[in-house]
């Protein structure tokens, strides 16, 4: 492998920046709306690619975006409307570092001692301004990882091994993690006094440290799961929502909300305060994916005044864009005939269509066939269409015969799964998955109830018949 010298990239980067600076001087109204990144050399890029390294950042205030450092991408930029840009680096070795850059920064990405190292090349930075967390781990912890990373590792292990008592280890690692957070806070104070880190960066890392302390307090080794009540109390103390780590905490809260059934919790309490607004948006975003389009419109209208108008527009757009997706699925029947899904919808006009996405290897799909077959036989004005995502045609044909779903003109193999705009638009990431189209061929439910939820499903259909 030929190593391209790092100074070649650096000279190009400086030249690029100089050109950009000249253009800005000539156009005073123009602002640099991005942070620019460049990998130091080809070996660094190969190493990052091998480590499955990636960056996360907040996009448009509410979305967590990911960018993977691929083997053919030496430079890139990340737009930001804010004065600063928060970046989180992660790789397969569980390295997890946060960085805070200024809008307009040009950043050279290096690797030192098998650890990421970021250098701003177009302005002078203080010693601990950029790589604070990497330096912290080395100076304070003598470890590649934080104390709370160690704790969460054992916590996740304990959930997968219910027969093993992890409480002693959890208590010990939690205590160490809290001690390390206190040590980090004191170190930040001293760095600020020594002017080794600017105030804005110190505030960011100080707030993150306090947030991690509050989050860690939620994990009680004596309990099997997180308390939604405790989560809601932490939410009320969060005055901001803009940081990446808070966005990911919002997902943690909503995952817990999805799973809770034994707690008497006022869900509306979760949506109070500044952080509650982003939590509400993310909650609505999840819910509209699960509801019919009519139910989605009713739900988001209910909270119109509780979310920012720009966020409300995103919710409306997501609902309408999914509803209006082009029906570009290509289907093959067991005789080798090819159909377009749109033509099939027109052909079956006058009936409700219950779409069952399945595969021969999907056990939950197969277990649902008796219920969907019963649904198909019970209603004269409803048909179940079995659409397989199998890649092996013979396995599909065998399964169709074996499980009695070889119904003429109702059982098909999808032949363009990777290319279909419709399948990408509905985010067909897992199966079984069910859709409903009405008698006119209108797409009315992107994530319909399972066939064994007979009462819920039949009530939904009967309501649309009225």
Automatic annotation (TrEMBL):
<dbReference type="InterPro" id="IPR050553">
    <property type="entry name" value="Thioredoxin_ResA/DsbE_sf"/>
</dbReference>
<keyword id="KW-1015">Disulfide bond</keyword>
<dbReference type="InterPro" id="IPR012336">
    <property type="entry name" value="Thioredoxin-like_fold"/>
</dbReference>
<keyword id="KW-0676">Redox-active center</keyword>
<keyword id="KW-0201">Cytochrome c-type biogenesis</keyword>
<dbReference type="Pfam" id="PF13905">
    <property type="entry name" value="Thioredoxin_8"/>
</dbReference>
<feature type="domain" description="Thioredoxin">
    <location>
        <begin position="320"/>
        <end position="466"/>
    </location>
</feature>
<protein>
    <submittedName>
        <fullName>TlpA family protein disulfide reductase</fullName>
    </submittedName>
</protein>
<dbReference type="InterPro" id="IPR036249">
    <property type="entry name" value="Thioredoxin-like_sf"/>
</dbReference>
<dbReference type="InterPro" id="IPR013766">
    <property type="entry name" value="Thioredoxin_domain"/>
</dbReference>
